[in-house]
TrEMBL record, chain A:
Region named Disordered: 622-683, 723-995
Gene3D superfamilies: Leucine-rich Repeat Variant (1.25.10.10), Longin domain (3.30.450.50)
Membrane topology designation: Peripheral membrane protein
Function summary: Part of the AP-3 complex, an adaptor-related complex which is not clathrin-associated. The complex is associated with the Golgi region as well as more peripheral structures. It facilitates the budding of vesicles from the Golgi membrane and may be directly involved in trafficking to lysosomes. Involved in process of CD8+ T-cell and NK cell degranulation. In concert with the BLOC-1 complex, AP-3 is required to target cargos into vesicles assembled at cell bodies for delivery into neurites and nerve terminals.
Protein name listed in UniProt: AP-3 complex subunit delta-1
Pfam families in UniProt: Adaptin_N, AP3D1, Mu_AP3
Compositional bias per record (Basic residues), positions renumbered to this chain: 740-753, 843-852, 957-969
Family membership: Belongs to the adaptor complexes large subunit family.
Alphabetical UniProt keywords: Acetylation, Coiled coil, Cytoplasm, Golgi apparatus, Membrane, Phosphoprotein, Protein transport, Repeat, Transport
Record's compositionally biased regions (Basic and acidic residues): 639-675, 724-739, 793-833, 853-865, 928-940
Polar residues biased stretches: 900-920
UniProt GO cellular component terms: AP-3 adaptor complex; axon cytoplasm; endosome membrane; Golgi membrane; presynaptic endosome; terminal bouton
InterPro entries: AP3_complex_dsu (IPR017105), AP3D_dom_metazoa (IPR010474), ARM-like (IPR011989), ARM-type_fold (IPR016024), Clathrin/coatomer_adapt-like_N (IPR002553), Mu_AP3 (IPR058898)
Automatic annotation (TrEMBL), chain B:
Gene: LOC113043067
Gene3D superfamilies: 3.30.450.60
Gene source species: Carassius auratus (Goldfish)
Annotated localization: Cytoplasmic vesicle membrane; Golgi apparatus
Membrane topology field: Peripheral membrane protein
BP GO terms, sorted: Golgi to vacuole transport; intracellular protein transport
Domain (AP complex mu/sigma subunit): residue spans on this chain: 1-147
InterPro entries in alphabetical order: AP_complex_ssu, AP_mu_sigma_su, APS3, Clathrin_sm-chain_CS, Longin-like_dom_sf
Keywords, comma-separated and alphabetical: Cytoplasmic vesicle, Golgi apparatus, Membrane, Protein transport, Transport
Family, as annotated: Belongs to the adaptor complexes small subunit family.
A Pfam family it matches: Clat_adaptor_s
Name this protein carries in UniProt: AP-3 complex subunit sigma-2-like
Entry superkingdom: Eukaryota
UniProt function note: Part of the AP-3 complex, an adaptor-related complex which is not clathrin-associated. The complex is associated with the Golgi region as well as more peripheral structures. It facilitates the budding of vesicles from the Golgi membrane and may be directly involved in trafficking to lysosomes. In concert with the BLOC-1 complex, AP-3 is required to target cargos into vesicles assembled at cell bodies for delivery into neurites and nerve terminals.
Organismal lineage: Eukaryota, Metazoa, Chordata, Craniata, Vertebrata
Length: 1233, 192
């Protein structure tokens, strides 16, 4: 043994170490690759040795080679071996190599779990440290799950060195294993106040990183951070906290108000530029969040702008850059304060540093006004001429277009000027943005009708001088402009002065060198021009000229017919045939112009970019369904070649339409095969067949024209500058005129005092040069108002959007390995788990959670708005002041209890959390919400009472206010109509529970929530929707209930979702056991195909009753009833969209009368909202319109009217059977009461 | 979050690469090339922030770099990091290197890439800033080095001896490196 070691170390003397390898590579500059490959061979030999030192040395060298770009993943297993060495030296090498080259796809990572766990619990802190560092780089979901608990233990390690690493790595663990966030969070929060500054900094770091992505969940930490901010002296920590506040303030404006003062102090006091800069940034964020509500913060804005100006003027380029960056943030909300520094920013445009120039450009975007647009653009055009290098120039070009086109050409007063700017931009060599200019030209020409004449003239000149644009192959990008030019000239050809000349220009042989899609537009628009020319000539009864035009087309079009581009060829041959036919008619002296023009008649309207997306899919249209059943393999194979012979197609289609029996088909196929086999000219479908036609065309290609490479001034093109002068003159004149008028006015109004903003300088006063009618873009008629943010569904941070204030449930504990004693349970956790009601929350799928979150957000928002309306902010503030320690938390509970009904609703005690405190006013049922508040309430019932009192006061105030309101607007009538969603109550609503007993026996009671959570699965299964049913199981006996199994007999339409591999008749195990007297909730997912009919499913629950002496097997039958209502989702709808929907006429109506309803109207509405998932669109007196949407997108509209005791409901829906069923259910609801 | 830390010399040769997000090796090399291309054409008196670098990430990311004599230190960070803070962090890192290697120069980084990694590990962990206090960083690095030395023992000794012999025979070390000013100058700290 000893001998072996000695031998090993002697061998090692001849191994290269890292230094030797590096030296070797440096000495083999010529044949580096070869040298390295021999080294890799050596390394492979070394890795085969038993000696761990040799292996470690080899792995160390591999790490170096990895940096040079060599794939070393083949040695992954050896790396794991070195990682598991007992010596720190080698372990460190192993972990370093692993952190450099392991990733989620590395399969050997599976093997490391136990090794890492061992290292984490090593007595040597550096073993632990190295393992943590390594793990932070290659943690996978599996590792995160298995090690989360161990790392959490380390967060309370005695050594700060380990603590801070453990805290930091938790962020990575959360990302990979989101379920760990809630259990670990209390401890993480503790670490914010760790005595060691490093640990504290790490905790701040992690929480900031978390909060940046999902700020709303961390609002409750604001007071703690506020304390840290005022006490900490560590600039790193301060910067992080201040950045975090920047993310939080938009959600909680009151926080911003508190922040302004300490931040201003910091700005004045700190000497660290980094801190100063971040303070300014956050103050800006605060000001932005306050901009709507608070008027007087001009001092803070001034301070910020002033500090930023100092930064921008600094000689340090970094500060200049950052100053500009921050300036652009202010610009969004306070453009005026930035605009006064225009000089400074224009100066930055001349900076030698490109980063700074780009920043300054960004700022310019927000600084333009009607007054200075032309001037700024002129400056930019100068820069365009000077700009060296294409990237910066392209950037300038896009910026010019951005600046001009922003907010619907708001700042352009003279579109002639803009068109000439665009035309000037076409002279840029080698820009990539030809298409951008083209689309602007198209947009302006289409939407600004007044400019068409001018635009067409300009485009005609462009077409005439097309050779200047296309000459150089380098400048290809710009030829896109011709696409726009040709189209505009064609479409608006009535404005052309000399259409014949343009037509001639469009049919020049040179055109054939343009890209195909442009040629296609040329050809098509040549036809349009042709129509115009014909009409012109026939109007003048000049048949000679008309015939000449036809001849021109017949002469020139064949060039395009030979084009290799399919689109060009097709269009050209179509039009050629048409013209030939026209020529024939002309020769017979028939007037054709009218008919030819009719081909292109009709105005094109601009369509909004999202219009297509917003067209609702018509009911019954399934885009995934086959229109015709796909033909069998063999058939399709035979048919493919057919496509070449277009003439045969129609015949074939006809035969398909008439139903032909199989035999006939088979016979034909046979014949066809025979034919193909015998036909020597039969060619398989491939583009190469085209070449046969191409060959003779070569002679027709003309000799390329000689181009001047220097862009000459295109003759006849106006310079944009002249417009600037004109505009100035015009404004001057107008100003003078206005002054005259004003003087007059002044004389008249003298005594009354002038309004401040009527000065001649204000924006609105600058009148546009031409009358401009910017056509708005069209939207489909029944487009729904959906503000669907296109969030990236793959963002890992979405999974971390978890409510952290909710108490922990048992099921959420981190997985602990069973053979270990349960060491950790932080005091916070203990407390929390005690106070949790015994039911566990079933973990639901992420998708659902997110949806709920969204709903919650919506609700919060609507509530906030409501609150604002009622103007009882002051009251809230009082509350805030009274509990400075936890303002946000109290806010939340208040929110849950805010609706005026809550007091009465809370009195009703239905088993477990069946009462939906909040849902009475807000129709979305949120089973989590009451759970949120309950433990807190029990914690401090005194507190609650106080709050309730306050609420009552609030309510009264509110009432008073509303009365007041009524007085004011009594005459206005419609003023007190309710918009969107929530119903405001005049008096408290009766409690409503949406749990109903499903089945019950002496052992167990099953209650089922009426309002299932419904959601669609988008993507593959568009025809299937999923419905989640929550069922509460309550143990009524004295015995222990276990092994519960839930099973349902599937129907054709609805199926219980079973885990993969389970048969269709297998039951689902209920994931908990029930001790006596305890109830718990479980959720089951059903997939439903058709939702227009209610469904009943039979089911059984089997369970084992275990008492001290015996255990028996019991079962309970139940019937699950899926009402049509349960497929409706409460969807808010705006009244205009609602009106459009009704107008569209796609909906079928039905109505219902209910007699003897003697409940207040708003109760009735609330009931419909609550039980049937509708939302109120608008309510006027005793009439309300309501809306809901099914999970498959059916719209359901109700018009509810009441008079005396009769309620009439007119309903409309695009699916009559669904409507009928919903109405039946409505009727049932009201017959019950 | 820091997404990547790259150190390369004036010719674009990587001296240390540390990605906190997985990229395949060829992609890594491409990123290095692109980053070098972006950074190297900038004057020394322009700002140290660079937007873009399409390979590494979208608009949320920035390149923040410093140029010391022959070496570029480039950090790719997202918007959660303070720009000036990262500049200071680079300074802290370089000063730490200076302390640990005693007058650090490019050669130290070339021959002791592993050691540089170990130092970096004490500054940044998994893309997040771990420690900014230089004394603390140096202390931890030295403690670990001492531990490594104490473990050296039997198996370490011959290797060291051999490498000492090898180094003795090689006066060509400086000859191979044709760079004049090799020391990384550490300018005085900006107030932080």
């Amino acid at each position: 043994m000893a001998l072996k070691i000695v031998k090993g170390s002697i061998d090692r003397m001849f191994d290269k170490n890292l230094q030797d390898l590096v030296r070797g590579i440096r000495n083999h500059k010529e044949d580096e690759a070869k040298y390295i490959s021999t080294c890799i061979d050596e390394i492979k030999q070394e890795l085969k040795q038993d000696n761990i030192a040799v292996k470690a040395n080899a792995v160390c060298k591999l790490t170096y080679l990895q940096m040079l770009g060599y794939d070393v993943s083949w040695a992954a297993f050896n790396i794991v071996e070195v990682m598991s060495s007992s010596k720190f030296t080698f372990k460190r090498i192993g972990y370093l190599a692993a952190s450099q080259c392991f990733h989620e796809g590395t399969d050997v990572i599976m093997l490391t779990t136990n090794q890492i766990r061992k290292d984490l619990s090593s007595p040597n802190q550096y073993d632990t440290g190295v393992a943590l560092t390594g793990l932070s780089c290659f943690v996978t979901p599996d590792l995160a799950r298995d090690l989360a608990n161990d790392i959490m233990t380390l967060m309370s390690h005695t050594k700060p060195y380990i603590r801070k690493k453990a805290v930091l790595i938790m962020y990575k663990v959360f990302l990979k294993y989101p379920e760990s966030l809630r259990p670990a969070f209390p401890r993480l929060k503790e670490k914010l106040e760790d005595p060691d500054p490093g640990v504290q900094s790490a905790a701040v770091n992690v929480i900031c990183e978390l909060a940046r992505r999902n700020p709303k969940n961390y609002l409750s930490l604001a007071p703690l951070f506020f304390k840290l901010m005022t006490s900490s002296t560590n600039n790193w920590v301060l910067i992080k906290i201040i950045k975090l506040f920047g993310a939080l303030t938009p959600l909680e404006p009151r926080l911003g108000k508190k922040l302004i003062e300490p931040l201003t102090n910091l700005i004045h006091s700190t000497s660290a530029m980094s801190l100063l800069y971040e303070c300014v940034n956050t103050v800006i964020a605060v000001l932005i969040s306050l901009s709507s509500g608070m008027p007087n913060h001009s001092a803070s804005i001034q301070l910020c702008v002033q500090k930023l100006r100092i930064l921008i003027e600094d000689s340090d380029q970094n500060l200049k850059y950052l100053g500009l960056l921050a300036m652009s943030k202010i610009l969004k909300t306070h453009p005026k304060s930035v605009q006064s520094h225009k000089d400074l920013i224009l100066q930055c445009l001349d900076d030698k540093d490109e980063s700074i120039r780009l920043r300054a450009l960004d700022l310019l975007y927000g600084m333009v006004s009607k007054k200075n647009l032309m001037e700024i653009v002129k400056k930019l055009m100068l820069h365009v001429d000077k700009a060296e290098g294409t990237t910066y120039r392209d950037e300038l070009l896009t910026k010019i277009i951005d600046i001009c086109s922003q907010s619907n050409y708001q700042y352009i007063t003279n579109f002639e000027w803009y068109i000439s700017i665009l035309v000037e931009l076409t002279r840029l060599e080698g820009t990539r943005h030809g298409h951008l200019i083209a689309s602007q030209m198209l947009d302006v020409a289409i939407r600004v009708k007044a400019i068409r004449g001018f635009a067409v003239a300009q485009m005609a000149t462009l077409l005439d001088n097309a050779h200047l644009l296309t000459g150089n192959t380098q400048r290809n990008g710009i030829c896109e402009v011709l696409y726009a030019a040709a189209w505009i000239c064609g479409e608006f050809s009535e404005h052309l002065e000399d259409p014949m000349q343009t037509l001639e220009a469009m049919l020049r042989p040179k055109v054939a060198t343009l890209p195909g899609h442009i040629q296609a537009v040329y050809v098509q628009n040549a036809a349009k021009l042709f129509a115009t020319v014909l009409q012109k000539h026939e109007g003048e009864t000049d048949s000679q000229a008309a015939q000449e035009t036809s001849q021109l087309l017949i002469d020139r079009l064949p060039l395009f017919v030979q084009s290799a581009n399919l689109e060009v060829q097709e269009r050209a041959s179509c039009i050629l045939q048409l013209v030939k036919y026209i020529q024939k008619l002309q020769q017979k002296n028939v007037e054709v112009a009218e008919e030819v023009t009719a081909l292109f008649a009709g105005e094109l309207n601009p369509v909004a970019p999202k219009a297509q997306k917003k067209v609702p899919i018509p009911e019954g249209l399934d885009l995934d369904a086959w229109i015709n059943e796909p033909p069998s393999e063999s058939e399709s194979e035979d048919e493919k070649p057919k496509a070449v012979f277009a003439k045969e197609e129609p015949k074939h289609y006809r035969s398909r339409n008439t139903e032909v029996d199989e035999k006939e088909l088979a016979r034909r196929r046979e014949v066809r095969k025979q034919e193909q086999a015998n036909n020597p000219f039969y060619i398989k479908a491939s583009p190469s067949s085209q070449k046969v036609y191409d060959a003779p065309g070569v002679e027709h290609i003309p000799v390329v024209q000689i181009d001047l490479s220097v862009p000459l001034k295109v003759p006849g093109m106006p310079m944009s500058d002249q417009y600037l002068k004109l505009e100035e003159e015009r404004q001057q004149k107008e100003k003078a005129e206005r002054k005259k008028k004003e003087k007059k006015k002044k004389r008249e109004k003298r005594g009354k005092g002038r309004k401040a903003d009527s000065g001649p300088e204000s924006e609105e006063d600058i009148t546009p040069a031409q009358h401009v009618d910017i056509v708005t873009e069209e939207m489909p008629e029944n487009a729904l108002p959906s503000d669907d943010d296109d969030k990236d569904p793959n963002d890992p941070h979405r999974a971390l959007d978890i409510d952290l204030d909710k108490p922990l449930a048992d099921s959420e504990k981190l997985p602990v390995r069973t053979h270990r004693p349960e060491v950790l349970k932080s005091p916070a956790e203990d407390r929390v788990s005690e106070s949790v009601p015994p039911e566990t929350k079933k973990k639901s799928s992420k998708e659902k959670k997110e949806k709920k979150k969204d709903k919650e957000k919506d609700r919060k928002r609507s509530k906030e708005e409501k609150k604002k309306k009622k103007k009882h902010k002051e009251v809230e503030e009082e509350l805030l002041e009274s509990q400075p320690e936890e303002p946000v938390q109290s806010e939340e509970t208040k929110e849950a209890a805010a609706p005026p009904t809550s007091t009465s609703a809370e009195e009703v005690t239905v088993p477990s959390s069946a009462v939906e405190t909040s849902s009475a006013a807000v129709p979305e049922s949120e089973p989590d919400e009451p759970k949120d508040t309950e433990p807190e309430d029990t914690k401090s019932s005194k507190h609650k009472k106080k709050k309730q009192k306050k609420e009552k006061e609030e309510k009264e105030k509110k009432k008073k206010k509303r009365h007041h309101h009524h007085h004011h607007h009594g005459e206005a009538g419609g003023e007190d109509s309710v918009q969107n969603g929530t119903v405001e109550e005049e008096e408290p609503l009766p409690p409503m529970s949406n749990y109903s007993v499903l089945a019950e026996n002496s052992f167990i009671k099953m209650m089922r929530e009426d309002a299932e959570q419904v959601y669609d699965i988008q993507g593959n299964h568009q025809d299937e929707s999923k419905v989640v049913v929550s069922i509460i199981f309550e143990n009524k006996s004295d015995s222990f209930l276990k092994s519960m199994e839930f099973n349902v007999l599937d129907s054709l339409n609805s199926k219980l979702q079973r885990p993969e591999g389970a048969g269709p008749h297998d039951g689902l195990t209920v994931p908990f056991q029930l001790p006596p007297g305890v109830s718990n909730e479980a959720r089951f997912v059903f997939s439903v195909q058709s939702i227009v009919m209610p469904q009943k499913l039979k089911g059984t629950l089997t369970f084992i009753v275990k008492s001290d002496e015996s255990s028996t097997h019991e079962k309970l039958d139940f019937k699950l009833h899926f009402t049509c209502t349960s497929y409706l989702i409460t969807t808010p709808c705006y009244s205009d969209a609602y009106a459009k929907l009704l107008e569209s006429g796609d909906l079928k109506g039905s109505s219902l009368r209910l007699e003897g309803i003697n409940m207040p109207f708003h109760h009735l509405l609330a009931r419909i909202c609550f039980h049937h998932h509708f939302s109120v669109v608008e309510r006027i007196d005793s009439c309300a319109s309501m809306y809901s949407r099914s999970i498959q997108g059916h719209h359901v509209c109700l018009l509810v009217k009441t008079s005396d005791q009769t309620v009439s409901i007119d309903a409309k829906c695009d699916e009559p059977s669904l409507l009928g069923n919903v109405l039946d259910e409505l009727k049932q609801t009201f017959s019950k009461c | 979050m820091i997404k990547a830390i790259l150190i390369f010399n004036n010719h674009g040769k990587p001296r240390l690469i540390r990605f906190y997000q997985y990229f395949a090796e060829d992609m890594q090399q491409q990123i290095i090339r692109e980053t070098f291309h972006l950074v190297s054409k900038r004057d020394d008196n322009v700002c140290n922030f660079l937007e873009g670098g399409s390979l590494i990430g979208g608009s949320d990311y920035k390149l923040i770099y410093r140029h010391y004599a022959t070496l570029y230190f480039v950090f790719c960070v997202d918007s959660s990091e303070s720009e000036l803070g990262i500049l200071d962090l680079i300074q802290v890192f370089v000063e730490t290197l200076d302390k640990c290697f005693e007058n650090v120069c490019e050669l130290d980084l070339i021959f002791h890439m592993d050691k540089v990694h170990y130092i970096l590990q004490e500054v940044v962990m998994g893309g997040m800033v771990l420690e900014t206090n230089m004394n603390e960083i140096v202390a931890q690095v030295e403690l670990q080095n001492r531990m490594e030395k104490s473990e050296g023992g039997l198996s370490g000794a011959p290797a060291r001896a051999v490498s000492a012999v090898k180094n003795m025979n090689l006066p060509e070390i400086p000859r191979n490196i044709n760079i004049g000013d090799i020391n990384i100058k550490v300018p005085s700290l900006s107030p932080f």
